[in-house]
Automatic annotation (TrEMBL), chains A, B:
Protein name per Swiss-Prot or TrEMBL: Molybdopterin molybdenumtransferase
Annotated family: Belongs to the MoeA family.
Catalytic activity, reaction form: adenylyl-molybdopterin + molybdate = Mo-molybdopterin + AMP + H(+)
Function statement: Catalyzes the insertion of molybdate into adenylated molybdopterin with the concomitant release of AMP.
Length: 470, 470
């Protein structure tokens, strides 16, 4: 096999079991091949594992080879945006506004005092100083709240609380500290210009102006604004409904102690949690039934009720019943990706409504990596978000990192701030630690590009922090 | 009044309406005091507003003066942590684990192949090379899934898929690429050491070891691990139940067009959204009734059902019915804080269960600032989070910022990355824009400390980015 793939036996296909024959050293926990065969390049297959994920299995059926970018592009191009729906403002929290919210009201609705003081006529206080105060008759007091019409004439003032309606005739509010605080008459020590400390009707939002624009994420401040203009419901981009299913004859439900050869269905839980974290309304269906007719029924019913269907499974063997059931529902493209871990991935739009279906590997670590790389951006696109991808940072690798040529590798790591600025990342997994436990300790994915086979300790590497909500 | 407050008329009290007499220039939208009084320092009161929030109102009753830190300390010291509860693992998402989860199971539960290949005895393949392969009889095939007992003897191999049970007698898996891929007999081209590509029972998690520790935030990776060890429920720190109430005779429900002097209840919506964003289970009660008996009933019933009660209101006037109703339920301390906006804040533990009650200002911008400063850390403490406060960054001020001496000021701003590294922050609000709309455009709070009165354009200032979930 050459780097340009000219000796591929099937066009577009490359046996990825041989992907790691070129670079690297054996990982610590896997015994090295015996010295007798140390010269054989095939033995360096262990190199890229780092104890984490075995090389991709040789599949019986060659599947097309494609890059991470190609697969992601296909998904993001094909994923539809669900139609906007109207929700109560509190239910709209975290979603994107899907309408131009124009205020029918003025905010504030009436001229009001901006602070506690005396509503007065600017003319009456013009030129007042502490030495030569203006004296006004206090004709009443208004606090915030519903109030009838009030007015003042020349030489009069009304005591007002912040937020209280301004009496007709008044055009200025003199703060208490600029007066002697008098009750029957007040001595005013300053002559502010007309309009000072007055909030005019519509100053905040004028009727007919846009309060919240299309595409604005709705948070507490937007809810505040929507409520203020009298909107208790708002059109938003809805949370996509994501059904999460697991496939595999080895799977048993979480409450069933696994028998010989069986493993607990981990992925439907983990992927439902990840989908919810990404903003979806996730529905965990669980383990797909083995019986072909029932299997098809489940898939069809999930296509009817979902905006996106997510299936985790191995899909490696010939005659896989899930692959066959999916194929019967529409064009489903299984691909061998130039990606580590989890090279076998699939995408299609199935059923009468062409609902997007994404298949991710069954191995739990590979499943969550695939979720990060392909599913999370798709869910964010369905939510209408502009920023589909997690922010990445460049970090200093604390250890040497190895990666197979031609493959994009994702490693779990712990990224931390460097005392001198910037970031340092430590790959997780010295091989002696559990795969799932290692993933649970990670706070980032280290991304090593296709054309990089080695990052020296101290070299820069791309890191994708995995921040969860809260 | 002097800086050290020696001329306070009441001990611990300082008339905060005069807080801004020392520094600054008038804001753009508020007319300057007339030239006739330009020399009077009182006129510079307009300086700190920046069009955003008027100086704190003079209250009829002097209330104690305290710092932001003092008030926050009192709240965080008094806030209890709700008892752990057991939830289904998917409902535990985003919460902190409150138990030491010890695995009763081994992961994997059985010795298994780490990749597709041939299970064999290391002795039989020792020293094999492509030139001198070892020939083995293939006695069967095992795929992933439930399987009965199988075994191999000397000179035998079994074809195995990744995840399949290893037959008894086998101690190595030879990857397909290291063989001729034979079906009846297989020629093995390498002699890996015993244990190569074998995942032993318990390698991932051994029985009796801790899978998830107390205090671990539960995300998709932890849910994956919990499911793998057979846990469908887990003890967590629960979301605190937060009741959100608004107080004020001027308030009407969102669906009611406000009459003269009335305003829509914005805070119960905005604060419920903020509480939920902070991780609470928020319950929006709405506007408190005016009738004293009914008011007390509502407060009492909310104390019974909540871990924290949040009340937004102005609380400035004498004989405020809400203040009186609160006082009847326990010690409620109203304080004048050295804080802008929203100096009047309160905290107490009321009712038979001493439920914490936090009062924040009624002005919607000040209410959400107070939420950020006092309520969000309290909710995070109740959730058991170690990190109570938002991360702050230092940013270059794009404009000159003014702040009253002795007061900590919070300004809404927009922070962005500087092309040369670091951050730049622009204060929001040229005065011509709505207060609520300005807050809705902000992505950070600018925090100006008590002893700072001016930050020059280009100077460094502390910024608290307001990230929402997703």
């Amino acid at each position: 096999m050459t780097e340009d793939g000219t000796d591929r036996t099937v066009p577009g296909y490359r046996d990825t079991t041989a992907l790691d024959l070129r670079s690297g050293t054996p990982v610590r926990d896997v015994p090295s091949p015996s010295p007798a065969v140390a010269g054989a390049p095939v033995h360096e297959t262990t190199a890229i594992d780092r104890g984490a994920v075995p090389p991709p299995p040789a599949t019986a059926e060659p599947v097309p080879l494609r890059s991470v970018e190609q697969h992601l592009d296909e998904i993001l191009t094909a994923v539809p945006q669900p139609d906007p729906i109207e929700l109560a403002v509190l239910d709209a929290q975290g979603l994107l506004c899907a309408e131009e919210v124009v205020s029918q009201r003025a905010l504030p609705a009436f001229d009001q005092a901006a602070l506690d003081g005396y509503a007065a006529r600017a003319l009456d206080v013009e030129g007042a100083t502490p030495a030569e105060p203006a004296h006004l008759s206090v004709v009443g007091e208004t606090v915030a709240g519903p109030s009838g019409p009030a007015s003042i004439g020349p030489g009069m003032a009304q005591k007002v609380a912040a937020g209280a309606m301004l009496p007709a005739g008044a055009d200025v509010v003199v703060p208490v500290v600029w007066t002697d605080g008098g009750m029957a008459t007040v001595a005013v020590h300053a002559g502010p210009l007309a309009g000072t400390y007055v909030r005019r009707a519509g100053d905040d939002v004028a009727p007919g102006t846009t309060a919240v624009q299309v595409g604005t994420p709705i948070g507490p401040a937007q809810i505040s604004l929507l409520a203020a203009v009298g909107r208790d419901r708002v059109q938003v981009r809805p949370r996509p409904r994501v059904a999460v299913l697991s496939a595999g004859s080895e799977l048993v439900e979480i409450s069933t102690p696994p028998g010989p050869g069986q493993v607990v269905d981990v992925n439907s839980y983990a992927l439902a949690a990840a989908a919810r974290d990404a903003g979806a309304e996730a529905y965990r269906w669980g383990v797909l039934p083995a019986e072909p007719r029932r299997l098809s029924e489940v898939l069809e019913s999930q296509l009817l009720r979902s905006d996106l269907v997510l299936v985790a499974g191995t899909f490696a063997s010939e005659g896989d019943p899930v692959q066959e059931a999916l194929a019967a529902l529409g064009p489903m493209q299984f691909s061998q990706l130039t990606m580590h871990p989890g090279p076998v991935q699939a995408f299609g739009r199935l059923g009468p409504d062409s609902v997007p279906v994404i298949c991710v590997p069954g191995e739990p670590v590979a499943a969550l990596v695939a979720f990060e790389v392909f599913v999370r951006p798709a869910i964010r696109m369905m939510l209408g978000k502009r920023q589909l991808f997690r922010r990445t940072v460049q970090a200093i690798a604390a250890e040497r990192l190895l990666s197979p040529l031609g493959y994009r590798q994702y490693l779990h790591g712990q990224v931390m701030r460097h005392p001198d600025g910037g970031y340092v990342v430590e790959p997780l997994g010295d091989g002696g630690e559990a795969m799932l436990a290692r993933m649970a300790r990670a706070n980032c994915l280290i991304v090593i590009d296709e054309d990089v086979t080695e990052v020296a300790a101290g070299g820069l590497v791309t890191v994708m922090p995995l921040l969860l909500g809260g």
